[in-house]
Amino acid sequence: MALTETERPAAGGTPGKGVPRRPVGNRRRFTGRTALVLFLFMLPAIVFVGLFTYYPLLSGIQMAFRNYNLNDLSDTSWVGLDNFRTLVGDEMFRGTVRNSLVWVAGSLIPQFLIGFTMALWLRRRFRFRGAYQALVFFPWAVSGFLIGILFRWMFNGEFGVVNDLLMKTHLIDTPVPWLADAKYAMVAVIVANVWYGVTFFAIMILAALQSVPDELYEASAIDGAGKVRTLFSITIPSIRTTLALTVLLRVIWIFNSPELIFGMTGGGPANETHIVTSYMIQVTQEGDYGRASAMGVMVVFVLLLFAVFYLLAIKPRTPRRKVAR
Amino acid sequence: MILHETLAGRIAKFTGLGICLLFTVFPLYWILVTSFKDPGSIFAYPLKYWPSQFSLENYRGLFDQSNFGVFIGNSLIVSLVAAALATVVSLLAAYVLARFEFVSKGAVMGAFLVTQMIPGFIALGSLYILMTRMYLVDSRWGLVLVYVAISIPLCTVMLRGFFENVPASLEEAAMVDGCSRLSALFRVLVPVMTPGIAASFIFNFVNCWNELFLSVTLLNSDENKTVPAALNGFISSYNIDWGSMSAAAALSIIPTMILFAFASRYIVEGLTAGAVKE
């Protein structure tokens, strides 16, 4: 193990928050003893992650190709792609795929637009900005499951505050059975998820915005650019890497977050709000580990494919305009 | 000065921010208000937005009907121990990853980052079997070990970001003065990085406190259950007692709220530093 005490050069892309990089130290070879100490420092982390994350993951992958049902373990033979075939033929599974797409798109777009707007508003200092941020960013620290419970109560058809407010403002005349009616349940869970996720977009975009140098804005103001022009010519190009990565991470994350649905509808009514991952957990809880694992493998495979194509698509074809530091 | 804001622009901006704040705070306010209504008036019409009298009836009911005190205790123990252990383990790893170049470094970082893309619960079934073999099912300590493992990757990335803000000459000087690497780390670096370490710890704590599927899968007896597992139990029962439920929800949000108030700045800093820099 060749150890040299150098700092990896700062990766390209968005400049950090102006954090000074540690000056590059002398290249120096370490003795075996130092290498041993460093190895011992790394060891606990590697053991934990290896044993409780990677081992279950790999053994889960092989389960996807076996008949593995906790309710009947007499036959755990290899069945090749049978689990996958069953799923593709399963009407309910196909429904959850459709629901997942609606769930991701319906949550992502409003989250992005509202989060971006909030970040723009928060860019400049104002009195109490710190306190405001702490309050607005708070939902992010609450579990999706609990958010689901909160909104389950608010969207309650009889005693829910949402119906009450909508009726008081005369937007509706009669109470809407939000979570009991398949037509409305998906809308309700998406509203809750937008509420939950806006904050993260705002944080990430705000962090990126603060790395855009003021001089760029001054220059564009001197050139007489209006607000809209500045937004599209300065702001968005300067932070496009962060925007693109945030969107990617959010797609994966929203897809993989069934907690809110679990708390709010449990997948109902009539499985209309079940997404692939919430269905997967239900199947796990029923004990059919083979089929659940097959779903997990499909999820990871599809998301990986998506990530690769997405990253290729957003890769700048022309050399990126240099952002002045 | 950059772009002057017009008065109309400012009004629009602060109105927008006000609406966002209202939307954010209202659901939390509403669950709190519900929890303090007496059970009769929860289902009274018209809805009361400001209860005329505060009642602790729901909280009393919650503790009478369930072992909620035990659940909170379990959650506290599991989250505190797991967060502390994960922070220490991550600190050691982050130190190595921040300060040294070595051949397999990219592989380790990659392996950590991949765990963030793949949700832990995808391996829920096989984790359950692994825990059965290790006799760690329905054990709080078993849950702690799993929580430590799921906390390490992101915690390491965060701490690595904080390490990079501290000049290496600091611990090098200590080592020239005769400190061992370990004591230089704990005596010199840790005190300097306290805010970052505290934020990482709190971040871990909040994540463990909120975790649902592992706790539901790995714990089944009432004496070991954590708060989310217990809430899931309340939901699964046919009729939800919204009075007790709102009290339980309020109680389970409060610890996070307090901790987040202290550490939100550093957590955001650590996360975004890690993410934007990478």
TrEMBL record, chain A:
Gene3D superfamilies, per database record: MetI-like (1.10.3720.10)
InterPro entries in the record: MetI-like, MetI-like_sf
One of the Pfam families matching this protein, by short name: BPD_transp_1
Entry's Gene Ontology BP terms: transmembrane transport
Domain ABC transmembrane type-1 per the UniProt entry, residue ranges: 97-310
Keywords: Cell membrane, Membrane, Sugar transport, Transmembrane, Transmembrane helix, Transport
CC per GO annotation: plasma membrane
Subcellular location, principal: membrane
Protein name: Multiple sugar transport system permease protein
Organism listed in the record: Kribbella amoyensis
Source taxonomy: Bacteria, Bacillati, Actinomycetota, Actinomycetes, Propionibacteriales
TrEMBL record, chain B:
Boundaries of every ABC transmembrane type-1 domain copy: 72-263
GO BP terms in the entry: transmembrane transport
Subcellular location: Cell membrane
GO cellular component: plasma membrane
Domain of life (superkingdom): Bacteria
SUPFAM superfamilies listed in its UniProt record: MetI-like
Primary localisation category: membrane
Pfam families linked to this entry: BPD_transp_1
Topology class, membrane: Multi-pass membrane protein
Membrane-crossing segments per the record: 12-32, 76-98, 110-131, 143-163, 184-206, 247-268
InterPro entries per record: BP-dep_ABC_trans_perm (IPR050901), MetI-like (IPR000515), MetI-like_sf (IPR035906)
UniProt cross-references to CDD domains, sorted A to Z: TM_PBP2
Record family assignment: Belongs to the binding-protein-dependent transport system permease family. MalFG subfamily.
Name of the protein in question: Multiple sugar transport system permease protein
Species name: Kribbella amoyensis
